[in-house]
Amino acid sequence: MSADLVACLAKDSDIAAAMERIGPCRLRGNDGQEPYDALLRAITGQQLHGVAARKIFGRVCALGETGEIDGPPPTPGHLLSLSEDVLRGCGLSAAKLTAMRGVAQARLDGIVPSRLEAADLSDEELIARLITLRGIGRWTVEMLLMFTLDRPDVMPIDDFGVRAGWKRIKGLDVAPTPKVLRLATESFSPWRSALAWYCWRASEEGKKGAPNPLTG
């Protein structure tokens, strides 16, 4: 962790205590994926347990050029050429299939940027652009910003785990509303992604099992 990050978060005594308990921030800001790939993975995982989502996404990736379950998913043109029966055979619902095809077409149309193209767009510009796509909401784009594009100042105020973690860190009786959380965390810019990570970890304290595979 950078000294600036630590100084910014630790100026709050409650957050400093949480940092002491949890340890250094291990936020994975760059998962090496292209935004197109990350969005397909996100769509696959919606409303599914992590293990099931990984299996289904592996089947989708096996339809790609490498034919490997741990390889990249089919390119946009290839995905659009696949029949509905083939894609549904991976375990995708009709809604997810439609959303994934929409993302593929949006990549071809330039709406979904490459990593290089995304570097020229602000967080809010990327959110405004990508939430126009079916099956892609603000939270999904925020996860893309945090874990694929390595953006340091994202606070997903609608995330239940983040709100629950803030409640625990601050010793509140109830979790804050998204608006209250946004206002309460504005002063921690430009390191709010790390703060969100600490909120996720705080929300998991005392619980059995591994951390969330996405946010861990």
Automatic annotation (TrEMBL):
Keyword Transcription: no
Domain HhH-GPD, first and last residues per copy: 44-204
UniProt GO MF annotations: alkylated DNA binding; DNA-3-methyladenine glycosylase activity; DNA-7-methylguanine glycosylase activity
Domain of life: Bacteria
Enzymatic reactions: Hydrolysis of alkylated DNA, releasing 3-methyladenine, 3-methylguanine, 7-methylguanine and 7-methyladenine
Assigned keywords, A-Z: DNA damage, DNA repair
GO cellular component labels: protein-DNA complex
E.C. designation(s): 3.2.2.21
GO biological process: base-excision repair, AP site formation; DNA alkylation repair
Enzyme class: hydrolase
Cited InterPro entries: Alkylbase_DNA_Glycosylase/TA, Alkylbase_DNA_glycsylse_CS, DNA_glycosylase, HhH-GPD_domain
SMART domains: ENDO3c
Family: Belongs to the alkylbase DNA glycosidase AlkA family.
The protein, known as: DNA-3-methyladenine glycosylase II
Organism: Gluconobacter wancherniae NBRC 103581
Lineage summary: Bacteria, Pseudomonadati, Pseudomonadota, Alphaproteobacteria, Acetobacterales
